Structures are given as C-alpha cells and as structure tokens.
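Hello,

I think I submitted the adenosine-5'-triphosphate job twice by accident. Can you confirm which output corresponds to this input? Input:
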Amino acid sequence: MQLLNKNLQQLVDIAQKPSRLGIGLMSGTSLDGLDIALCKFTGNGLETQFELLNFTTVPYGDKFKDEVRTVFSKKQVELEKVCLLNAYIGSYHAGLVLEALGNWKVAATDVDFIASHGQTIYHAPQRLHKQDGYPNATLQIGDGDHLAIKTGILTISDFRQKHVAAGGEGAPLALYGDVILGSKPGEDRILVNIGGISNLTYLPADGDSDRILCSDIGPGNTLIDTFSRKFFNKAFDEDSAIANSGTVNEALLNSLLKHPFFQETPPKTTGPELFNEEYVRAAQERSGTSHIAHEDVISTLSAFTAKAIADFTRAYMPKGAKMFVSGGGAKNPFVVDYLKKRLYRTEINDTESLGINPDAKEAILFALLGNEALAGEPLSVGNNLSVLLGKFSFAS
Ligand SMILES: Nc1ncnc2c1ncn2[C@@H]1O[C@H](COP(=O)(O)OP(=O)(O)OP(=O)(O)O)[C@@H](O)[C@H]1O
Ligand SMILES: CC(=O)N[C@H]1[C@@H]2OC[C@@H](O2)[C@@H](O)[C@@H]1O[C@H](C)C(=O)O
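Support: Only one job matched these inputs. Its output is below.
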C-alpha cells in the first residue's frame, strides 16, 4: 500500500539520499544576470560537505533589465506588470537552467532540486518604510511553480518570506552559508560581499555562535552602476576606468555618509529603496556639489561604497580579523584599493583564497539553503533565525 502521495514520497526519497545534486539560482539587486551554481551536497547542517560542479552567470539583455526596472524598488508601479513579470521571470529562469544543464551535459532528471532566490523587486524593512502597524516586508518574484513545471525539477523558492514571518527583515541570509563555507577555527574572519548592496559576516576564531554577526553595510555597486548608466551609458564602471579618471569629492562623500542608517546598530538591512539616485542628488544639494564633473561623482560613489565598509569594520569588527571579499564589487579595483587604504592594517583577499568562487558565492548560498530545507533542521547560529526557509514547488 502506498502511504504517501507522489510528491511527498519524492521529498522523503531526496531527503534520505546520501548526497544530493542541487542548483542554486541568484538574481541580485545589480540586475546583471542570473547566477547558476550546480552543487553536490553530502549531509546537512554544519557538517555539510559541498562541491561546486559547475557555475555560470547568464547576462541579462537590456530589454529584460528595462522591463524589470519599471517595477524595481519603485513605490508606484503597474500592478499588471508585476503580475506578468512574476510568471515571466520564473519561466525565463527555467529556460536558462535548461540551457546551462544542456551546456554542462547534465540531465535534468539527475538534478534533485533547484533553489531559486527569484528577483527582489522591493525590500521594505520597518526601518525603511516606517509605516505604523506594518511589519518588515520584502518581495521576490519569479514564481517557483514555473521553474518546477518547465524543468521537471523539484524547486524551492521564496526563501525570504519565512525569515520575515519569524521576525527578521528577510535579509541578509548569507550568514548560514558563510558559516559553513568560510569558518576556520583559530582565525577571525570577515566575509564581505559587494553586490548591489554590500553585506558582511563576521566569523569569530573561537566559533562562539553568539558573536557571529551578519548584516548589510550600505550601497555596494548599485549607485556606481546607476550613475555609470546615467552619465556614461555604461552598465557599470568596468575596471574602475571612470572612477580612476576622476577625483573623490570629500564634501560629497561626507554628505553621502550622513544618514541614520549608518549609525543604526547591526544587524540591519537596506536596499536601492534608500540608496538611489534621489539619495545622491539630495547629498549633492546639501554639500553644494551638484555641478561637479561626472567622473568625480563616480569616484566619490566608489569611495562611498568602500568607506562605508571600512567604517563598519572599524566600528564593529575586532582588530586583526582577516577580510575576504566577493561579489562583483570585488572586481572593482578602485573600491578594493580604497578599502585597503582605509583598512591598511587588515589583510584583504578575495574569497578565491578560501576556495570559494567570489561570483558564485550567493548562488551557492541558496543551493545550501535548499539542501537544508530538504534535509536539515532549524539551526541557531549567530543572528540567524532558527527556521528552515523556502517553499516547495513540485513538477507534477
Ligand atoms: N570588472 C569590473 N569592474 C568593476 N565593477 C565590476 C566588474 N565586474 C563586475 N562589477 C560590478 O559588479 C556588479 C555585479 O555584482 P554582483 O553580481 O555581485 O551583483 P548582485 O548579484 O546583483 O548582488 P546582490 O544581490 O548581492 O546585491 C556589476 O553591476 C558591477 O557593478
Ligand atoms: C532583499 C534582498 O534581496 N537583499 C539582498 C541584497 O543584495 C545584497 C544584500 O542586499 C543582501 O541583504 C541580500 O542578498 C544576500 C544574498 C543575502 O540575503 O545574504
């Protein structure tokens, strides 16, 4: 007699496998493309053994980016567009997964699960929306059912909602993956990811769970990208070519750093809902720097990203901790050099030196969270919430 329906049986079977093949998908706030990481997991929790088998970033075309930007971090949008994009992105990502699997010569039937972050279109922690009676909120679109149906692979998605439901801000979720991938007994480590928004995980040498901290820091690439697009028609400041041709304007830099967010005690989260074009315009007006050269704006915004990380590190991190950077911002020489100058006593490398591909780190994180949703137990580490995240979408 069959006791379970087919879908529940599939969950039990996958959970009991000695090792699982999972795909992590991340589409971040930089809107540069879809990161796809094929990982093999053995075990779960802090004992997880993991291997990155394949990784690719599929760049988004301008048309897709423009479509998403019509609803991205905007207070008012066409609701119809949100509805259409929710289905479209799920299905589009599914197509990209199938294409990647084809390129890697891996059969979809050999993959146990997809763990999909989706596309954040609005992040609204209470600290940002400040509306009485409303809780923390965040919204990711690209529905998991479309991925499951189109690829035939069990899909876990919408990881941030339960974090919010359990009292968190829905981010950052990096902590769990960073603890597993990046901890080393006897070494104080700081893992900094410079994506659209930058965030950091502190991993103490003694492994003391109470001292582990994960928090957003401030803008990563988001402002550099916005103004590179606006002034120079470039998606980003490749190899800091623009920033290097300008000068940091100290008055503007100080004005940019004057926001209560930077004084708030971590953990905290933010997004382009705060750090956007209007934010920079207002800082320019306050500091009388509205007419400085466009190159100087890019240099100053790059310094802003780096100085926010340096200030946070000085304020909250113990001296002597080693820093490991990842995310697209780790490839911005101006940002990294500025950071090194501000933190001249800190040893700074990228996460490649830990054996973690700096571009793949966040996609791996979601694959890890998917593995936990299937085979793990709620874990209490640092300031993470002790809940298993993610919703299941079955292929039939
Ligand atoms: N060669 C380079 N020079 C300068 N900047 C670069 C370079 N390569 C990538 N970047 C920056 O990295 C960005 C992409 O970063 P990443 O892929 O980490 O973002 P993301 O996944 O959207 O991040 P998150 O979700 O963490 O906000 C680009 O938009 C660009 O600003
Ligand atoms: C709401 C949202 O999408 N936040 C992202 C964003 O990009 C970086 C930073 O802001 C971080 O808080 C988070 O992503 C990573 C993966 C996280 O949750 O750890």
